[in-house]
Amino acid sequence: MIIAGIVIAVIVILIFTANTIVERLIMNEIRSQLGNSTEAYIIETGKLDVNIASASAKIKGAHIYPSDTGLIMLRNHEIPLLVDVNVGNFSLKHIDILGLLKNKEFDIGEIAGTDIQAKITLGKTKKDTTRNQQKSFQSLFKETFKKAQISSFNLNKIRLSLFALKDSADPFFELDSLGLSIGDILIDQQTLSHTIPLNFNQLKLVTGGLFYEASEFYNLSTTEIALNIQDSSLNITGLKLSPRYGREEYNRIKDYNSDLFEISVPNIGLNNLHYKDYDTSRLIHFSSIEIDEPNISIYRDKTLPDAPFDYKPLLAGALRRIPVKVLVDTIRIAGERLQYEEKVHEQLPPGKVFFDPFYISAYHVTNHEPSIHAMDEMHIDFSGRIMAKTNLSAHLKIDLAGNYEQFSISGELGSVDATVFNPVIENLLLVSIESGDIKSASFRFSANDERSNGKLNLFYENLKIEVLEEDDKSKSTPAMSFVANNVVRNKNLKDDRKYLVGTIGFERRKDKAIVNFLWNSVKTGIVPVIAPIAAENEKQKVKTRKKKK
């Protein structure tokens, strides 16, 4: 909005002034549009060429940068930000001066700029100046002209850096190249009343590399972001969420255990943005989001203590916490690899489970009340090759309308050699599977914010395990292995008269996310099938804990 005000102000001044006075007027108008005092900036217009006959103007080497007074004002919170802008080339062509003189309506053929470097330092302000800047922009139209039409607006090779006042040495956000192209722009009193104060027929925005310090622990980067209004699409290429610390250093910094993420995504496509929905109801509505070949790695060190209780909502509750209204009809993820590692023994490496590849589809993802009234369920389908060996699939149905986080889930696991799960259980449970043939498994349960309830079928045979030594997991303990194999059931086949169906029932820990809830729910169905005695012992421990409470 500030830039648009500056550009339009410069246009008007260039038309009606001669070269000898245009520089002073431009500086005053720029200061006015920035909403700062005349002492905050030093402005050098560079080489200025105004041609009244051809209704055009060119500026080369313009520079706007903060003065010492401006820096003091920023530190004293008198202004919210300071800008430092270098403009290599800026031009305006084919200005309809006659139309402006007759009825305060005029056309501009082209506005173009290239080689622009902008550094913005953000501070704090004692009052919000956004409304004043908007008023300044609107008053410019009321006082100077009724309507503006711009055939083409093109900016290329823009480098943008954002700095925090408290740490101004390095930028926390950086774009190494930005290109913006807008066609057939219309600005009038009607468009000024809209959220986006102008109409246009085409818009293309393409960035080069983007860098952003997303938090104390992560950096976010992309190689390109491309927005195209003509097909209402936004494409993000080469997205990476990278930890700023290695695992050991991260654990030294953190007082409690928490997930450490590393994510790379070659391409993300956000398709068919419904602009009218945003303009009328502030709803961000995409028809689909396509996420191609993400590689996701998650690590947690459980040797660190748990964090103090902090309630974590499930899916519907998490959507309700999003501060803006969103609706995505379909989300599709075709993933390369999803891996989770968890360390529970100081002297052992983490246990590891992964899906390679994996697929997720979600339908009707929204926190928008009218959309929920129209359809009150969200559906999620997941499938993936667990340990790259066999398929695990699941379907979730989530109630969006209620406040009790109700959902249901069903899933199936294909046949697999049980030993493929040793990378998970050996380092977590100090148990190794010597043999075992899983024929299939299926589960179905419903859940809410309190607990889950359902059934699990697990068909397997030839199960044999050994218990490992904690100090050296390459060695087994024969005595404990003998006891364990007498506790564990060797098989569970449907035709067997001792066939057992697992009962799912887990009381949710509300400081844990939904994945923890799902896994522990399924686990309550597995344990009584494989080791009924162990399941009974666990039930007694739970009862004892509840009595103590």
Short description:
With 549 residues, the protein is of the alpha+beta class.
Structure write-up:
The protein is α+β, with helices and mostly antiparallel strands and 549 residues long. The protein has 14 helices and 25 strands. The protein has a 25-stranded mixed sheet that branches. Helix 13 packs across helix 14. The radius of gyration is 31 Å and the shape is elongated.
Shape: elongated
Termini gap? 59 Å
Helix segment tally: 14
Query: Spans of 5+ residues with little confidence (pLDDT < 50)?
Result: 13-23, 128-135
Cα Rg: 31 Å
How many beta-strand runs?
Answer: 25
Structural class, please? alpha+beta
Task: Name some characteristics of this structure.
alpha+beta; 46% strand
Topology overview:
Layout: H1 2-16, H2 19-34, E1 41-44, E2 47-51, E3 56-66, H3 68-75, E4 81-95, H4 97-103, E5 105-122, H5 130-144, E6 147-164, E7 173-188, H6 189-192, E8 202-207, E9 210-212, E10 218-222, E11 224-228, E12 233-243, H7 247-253, E13 260-273, H8 275-281, E14 283-292, E15 295-301, H9 315-320, E16 325-335, E17 337-343, E18 351-366, H10 369-374, E19 377-386, E20 390-399, E21 407-413, E22 416-417, H11 422-429, E23 431-447, E24 451-467, H12 478-487, E25 502-507, H13 514-530, H14 532-548
Parallel strand pairs: 5-6, 14-16, 15-17
Antiparallel strand pairs: 1-3, 2-3, 3-4, 4-5, 6-7, 7-8, 7-9, 8-11, 9-10, 10-12, 11-12, 12-13, 13-14, 13-15, 16-18, 17-18, 18-19, 19-20, 20-21, 21-23, 22-23, 23-24, 24-25
Helix pairs in contact: 1-2, 1-5, 13-14
